[in-house]
Write a structure and sequence with these properties.
The chain is an all-alpha fold and 334 residues long. The protein contains 20 helices and no strands. The chain is globular.
Length: 334
């Protein structure tokens, strides 16, 4: 209220605009944060802290191409700026552009030791590109070195869930929650693990705990859409998805769910249009799987086989890709 009062008196008061941008960012109101940042930028276009905040907002809202170009422009002025390099690293990580991820990690390591969170990016790069055992070894080493590094335990739980080791995942998630029970991501993955074990009551309790911490947590919203699609409640799924995309129009996961909705409802051309509009720099295993699955639903089994073969370099979702490929080959065989 104090910030708004200051802006009501003087709409171009830079300190109030900058504080408002930071406050909106911290509370997850990224659209309002971006508006405040851009207005503040018009007053101080060379403000580095604002530039970094803008990069974080663009990345959080899925505007990866713009975040990438802005990061690169900043690096032309400040080529060794570690914080900008870290932002660009996270953009490339989201895009799964692993050669560029390695390049930025090498640059950062030349400046000094990597922080645990950025070592986790390298571990994820290993896991996603098929070196799962090496990733596991490095993750174990990281957690031995930093036994209270909560994101590491959450990440290991996610890997366990991906290969149907939910009990292992729940143990790691409990460690994370014992360290900090206000981490919404840990409650979210705990819910998924329980649901996959068929423990619905425990899953609902974990979701309730996550929502109590942050009811706007994006993954919670998308899980609601996924569960509605699983129940074939397409009307509810579409309503929630439209609402989400109005706020996060560049979200890859939301666009993939939209494509899934169109695929399940037989609107194959619309599904293809959604997938085609996902930025080409996003080399995401889930995008490759969605395109292959759409071809399968259309009865294009040879294309499905070709797409699953092309996407074989993507480690995840490996078992889904293998199942889809086998189903397509069975159809061709028949």
């Amino acid at each position: 209220d104090t910030l708004n009062a200051a802006l009501a008196r003087e709409g171009n008061y830079f300190p109030a605009l900058a504080d408002l941008a930071r406050l909106n960012y911290e509370t997850g109101q990224y659209d309002l944060a971006l508006i405040a940042v851009e207005k503040a930028f018009s007053l101080e276009p060379n403000n580095r802290e604002l530039a970094l905040l803008q990069l974080r907002i663009l990345r959080q809202t899925g505007q990866l191409a713009l975040a990438q170009s802005r990061s690169q422009a900043l690096l032309e002025i400040h080529p060794r700026d570690r914080e900008v390099l870290l932002e660009l690293l996270l953009v490339y990580h989201q895009q799964e552009r692993w050669t560029l991820v390695d390049k930025i990690l090498d640059q950062l390591e030349n400046q000094g030791p990597l922080e645990p969170g950025h070592r986790l990016v390298r571990i994820d790069r290993l896991a996603v590109t098929g070196s799962v055992n090496q990733a596991g070894e490095q993750l174990a080493s990281l957690l031995a070195e930093y036994p209270e590094f909560v994101p590491g335990f959450i990440y290991r739980a996610r890997l366990a869930i991906a290969v149907d080791r939910q009990e292992d995942a729940l143990r790691d998630l409990q460690v994370a929650l014992d360290l900090d029970d206000r981490i919404v991501e840990a409650h979210f993955w705990k819910a998924l693990a329980h649901f996959q074990l068929g423990e619905v009551a425990q899953g609902e309790a974990a979701l309730k705990a996550a929502s109590a911490i942050d009811s706007d947590y994006p993954a919670l919203k998308l899980l609601g859409v996924s569960r509605a699609l699983a129940r074939r409640d397409t009307a509810l799924a579409l309503a929630e998805l439209d609402q989400y995309l109005a706020r996060y129009p560049f979200s890859i996961d939301a666009l993939l769910l939209q494509a899934e909705y169109f695929t399940l409802t037989g609107a194959y051309d619309r599904a293809e249009a959604v997938l085609s509009n996902i930025a080409p720099e996003v080399r995401n295993a889930k995008v490759a799987y969605a395109k292959a699955r759409l071809a399968f639903f259309r009865g294009q089994y040879l294309e499905t086989i070709q797409r699953t073969a092309t996407a074989a370099s993507h480690a995840a979702p490996a078992w889904r890709m293998s199942y889809l490929r086998a189903a397509a080959m069975a159809r061709v065989g028949n």
